[in-house]
Write a structure and sequence with these properties.
Layout (H helix, E strand, L loop, with lengths): L1 E4 L5 H9 L4 E4 L2 H9 L3 E4 L16 E4 L13 H17 L5 H5 L12 H10 L6 E6 L4 H13 L3 E8 L10 E8 L11 E2 L13 E2 L3 H5 L32 H7 L20 H5 L2 H4 L15 E6 L8 E3 L17 E6 L16 E2 L2 H7 L12 H10 L3 H12 L13
Parallel strand pairs: 1-2, 1-4, 2-3, 4-5, 8-9
Antiparallel strand pairs: 5-7, 6-7, 10-11, 10-12, 12-13
GO molecular function: DNA (cytosine-5-)-methyltransferase activity
Family: Belongs to the class I-like SAM-binding methyltransferase superfamily. C5-methyltransferase family.
EC number: 2.1.1.37
Length: about 425
């Protein structure tokens, strides 16, 4: 079997399914387990730190581990960095067959820090029978020194090992998500996958096959051309008048707006124009009756209607804000009640500003949109309320990235086109 520790909602499992194999996931979170069940993934609901290794000895060909990142992530308090010497001590002891976790845990500032040492407990037990054949592990960049410690141990056990930082955008994920990776194999040379994408398109040459440009959010979500789209909204409603497309307090999604026609991706220079008489028009311009039957309806100029939509990755002051024609920044969801939102800015407005429409309020990203930006299918069966779904998505490994990592370890062919970014 392939054993997936801290399996989450199925990022690694989805990648394995595309490659034609399955794993058994160990996961504690109730809603992540329900998502995995709805996605027909094999799961043992258990605490990885408490579950015995015995049932897997003699039966495990591959081990995957993505320990919880909250203790190390920039989105949290990062107490894992304070606890790092204790985690290194736990890894050293577990590799030698000594279980000192209980003592070390009492000294940790964040009890989750020590979970990064758990894969070594399984690896040491499996190594007694020459297993597993390969290993793949993933964490936030600050965990790289710990992966280097794992690498030294695994090399001593006969593995070829590579570890380093990879950017998911270089592998077709519409998100510049940087993570520390460890790849190890007993039967093949471990090395990082060859990037398929880059920030600037690279043509094929004598020195390589070339790389496509990073996948943009607009392309992944199916919201328009891969070139710079100019999402626009029509102030005052549609051509027939009516309320503002994004009224105060609206929780409508950008997808809803796109489907209603109030969000329209267009090439540069093409924007919506309006001659409608929705809310606020009568006060500024009068009704058609008191202007005279032959008087033309007032219009906003095209420039007044141009909005530039971007994705803000979280609520913090230093949040990454990226326009739709770029990949997203790393999606953060978690204990700070972070919200990932679409925000609009006018590209330009009327010279005097008096008739410029109000900027639409930020719109919360949907679970479907966030899942697509992680390269999950549009119909992936996320379970739980919005907060529980977002937490799962933010913690998941992007399946397309995972497939690039796993295919060489499994000696399986992989076609990135097997991942459909948008339905």
């Amino acid at each position: 079997m392939i054993l997936d520790l801290f399996a989450g909602p199925g990022g690694w499992s989805r990648a394995l399914a595309v490659l034609g194999v399955r794993d058994v996931g160990l996961e504690w979170d109730e809603w992540a387990c329900k998502t995995r069940a709805a996605a027909s993934q094999l799961t043992i609901r258990a605490d990885v730190a408490m579950y015995p290794t015995g049932p897997f000895i003699g039966r495990t060909s591959g081990l995957i581990a993505s320990p919880p990142c909250q203790a190390w992530s920039m989105a949290g308090k990062r107490l894992g960095l304070v606890d790092q010497p204790l985690v290194h001590a736990a890894v050293e002891d577990l590799a030698a067959g000594r279980d000192t976790r209980e003592r070390l845990l009492t000294a940790c500032r964040d009890e989750r820090s020590l979970l990064a040492a758990e894969p070594m407990r399984y690896l040491q037990a499996l190594n007694t029978v020459g297993e597993p054949e390969w290993v793949a592990m993933e964490e936030v960049p600050d965990v790289l020194p710990l992966w280097k410690q794992y690498a030294a141990v695994l090399r001593g056990w006969g593995f070829s090992v590579w570890c380093g930082i990879l950017n998911a955008a270089d592998f077709g994920v519409p998100q510049t998500r940087r993570r520390a990776m460890l790849l190890a194999s007993r039967v093949r040379t471990a090395q990082p996958p060859t990037p398929t994408h880059s920030q600037v398109e690279e043509p094929e040459s004598l020195f390589g096959p070339g790389r496509a440009r990073w996948v943009s959010m607009a392309e992944a979500l199916g919201w328009g051309a891969t070139d710079r789209p100019v999402p626009t909204v029509c102030a005052g409603g549609g051509p027939g008048g009516g309320p503002e497309p994004f009224p105060s307090g609206s929780r409508k999604t950008l997808s809803d707006a796109r489907e209603r026609g109030t969000w329209v991706p267009q090439p540069d220079g093409v924007v919506l124009q309006s001659c409608c008489e929705g809310a606020g028009w009568a006060a500024r311009h009068g009704t058609r009756e008191n202007r005279g039957a032959t008087a033309p309806a007032p219009t906003f100029t095209a420039e007044a209607h141009r909005w530039s939509w971007s994705l803000r990755s979280n609520n913090q002051a230093n949040a990454t804000v990226r326009p739709l024609y770029e990949p997203a920044g790393t999606l953060f969801f978690g204990h700070r009640a972070n919200e990932c939102t679409w925000v609009a800015e006018p590209v330009s407005a009327l010279a005097n500003g008096t008739d410029a429409p109000a900027v639409p309020e930020p719109i919360r990203i949907t679970a479907r949109e966030a899942g697509l930006l992680q390269t999950f299918p549009a119909d992936y069966p996320w379970q739980g309320n919005k907060g529980q779904q977002f937490s799962q998505i933010g913690n998941a490994v992007p399946p397309q990235m995972a497939a690039h990592l796993l295919a060489p370890l499994l000696d399986k062919p992989f076609n990135p086109d097997d991942f459909t970014l948008a339905a």
